What we know:
By secondary structure, the chain is of the alpha/beta class.
Amino acid sequence: MFDLLQTYWPHILAVLSTLLGTVAAVHVAMTKRDVRSAIAWVGVIILSPIIGALIYGIVGINRVRRANFVARRNMRRSRLGEVLAHYAIDPGGVETAFGERLESLRRLGDTVCGRVLTSGNRLTPLESGDAAYEAMGQAIDQAEHSILMETYIFDRDRIGRWLADKLIAARKRGVTVRVLVDAVGARYSVPSILSYLEEGDVTVAAFNGQVITGLRLPYANMRTHRKIMVVDGAVAFMGGMNVRDAFCGPDAAHDTHFKVTGPVVADLFAVAADDWHFETGEVLKGEPWRIRLSAGEAGTAPFMRAVASGPDANLEANHRMLMGAFSVAEKSIRIQSPYFLPDNIFLSALVTAARRGVQVEIVVPSKNNLAIVSRAMNAQFEPILRDGCRIYRSAGPFDHSKLLVVDGRWAYIGSSNLDSRSLRLNFEIDLEVYDEDFAGFVERRIAASREGAEEVTLDALRRRPFAVRLLERVLWLGSPYL
């Protein structure tokens, strides 16, 4: 056998390379929606025999199959629909309150999200890590039945251990607790916070892999970037904030998180419960997990809907909702994002809005925790500035907030960054909010970040040395994977 391999190994490698390359290339052609992505992957497969196909198998497959629990999920949603029917916004309800254009956006959300738009919700902004963690800690201390938490990063630092101790204390007094942390995000701390929680008898899991032994193939590139905590089925926390000490203190990084009550909490719980079921096989049912609505009067604003997106049945839901919002904008689109690297379809929608007279403003941080991303963003700025959009680099500490508002009436908040990873690869959770008061808060929050900011201009971009501009374009080529 060894002599045979020694004699014919070039032929065996050639056959193996052809077989793997053909299978991988066929998969690319049949599954990729973007022609540029497909061509790039075929190039990698051809130019790197065997290795290219293996790389594609690990990071190129962008669709997680979760069919094993789709039927159960649909059954849970049907029961959930019965509970929330009293708060559902009927067709025409948005048009009466906010006009015909936003009514068309509601119809888009009905088809894209598969969840109803509900009334009777309440939304409390938490504008710093100190405020967010304090509110979360109080909710954990008051928990009587259950706590379900899902997050990307849960550091084992001062604030992480403080919150973990509260979860452990809740478990000791009889509260049912489940904590799901992304397998990549859990590696941000060594040792992981998961072992600390396990020692305190908290049931934990790592999403899509194991912290020590590795990631689950072939879906290693698919991460949960969601940040959800639901307490007693009555109050939820969501937004862009991970659990880490970097967001606490006077000189800390900025972020914006939210406390939520009302019918939309049931949808946030359902999203996190589905992820827990996918990872562990456990269905969260029974008395501890019963939804206990704390809702306002039916028919009252803010109207809200959970937008779950990810590389499964919810592929590009966030992208589609934002495209719809840009298309109905009449006066203004204001965006704040730490990582602004969307695809050309997204940029074209913004530019089209600007060309028809919509005021488009984008705020990104001047100090970024990912220097490569900051450089790559510069490569996209020139064409959108040329067509009438305005871009600002905010002063002060790094701001991780993800905020968007259209016409001062519709807001979009949550975990999604405006890059290819969040808009296609990651599992994300956002809220669309129809409410002038809340939209006004988002506009003021973005305006505050714009104070003292440096406006990015075409002249300044063009004056930079050629070597710098070339470097940024090279980094931009890798933007789908940053």
